[in-house]
Known about the structure:
Elements: E1 3-8, H1 15-25, E2 30-36, H2 38-45, H3 53-61, E3 68-72, H4 78-84, E4 89-93, E5 108-112, H5 120-130
Parallel strand pairs: 1-2, 1-4, 2-3, 4-5
Amino acid sequence: MKKVITYGTFDLLHYGHVNLLRRAKEQGDYLIVALSTDEFNWKEKQKVCYFEYEKRKQLLEAIRYVDLVIPEESWDQKVNDVQEFKVDTFVIGDDWEGKFDFLKEYCEVVYLARTPEISTTQIKETLKKKS
Ligand code: C2G
């Protein structure tokens, strides 16, 4: 079984995220999503999520491409995750191009093109204009 892992906040969940998850799953047979916790989001990414971790986890678990959701609590957990879950391929959007090349020592590293024209920021701005 070829295992794939990816990381992210996935809030507000949109089709750009689903496109990424679909293509990540195509890299193997089993997809693990390490979902940024609320605390990690705030402390490390200065992101305030609309949906709390449990709700974002519930949404991801409903997506057919996702097999397991685990918490992302630290930037430094990736090597341990890859080893603990015997991951073959790490996947992430190309906005991170090159940032996780250190993982090449442990698994394949794949950067996938982001879906253009959609982002949580853009959703929020559009909603603001419409209100
Ligand atoms: N993504 C995408 N297209 C978009 C928006 C997002 O392909 N229009 C991808 C991102 O490249 C990422 C995933 O969807 O691979 C999740 O996006 P975010 O929730 O914004 O993830 P991020 O905050 O970048 O967290 O340790 C890594 C970080 O946790 C990644």
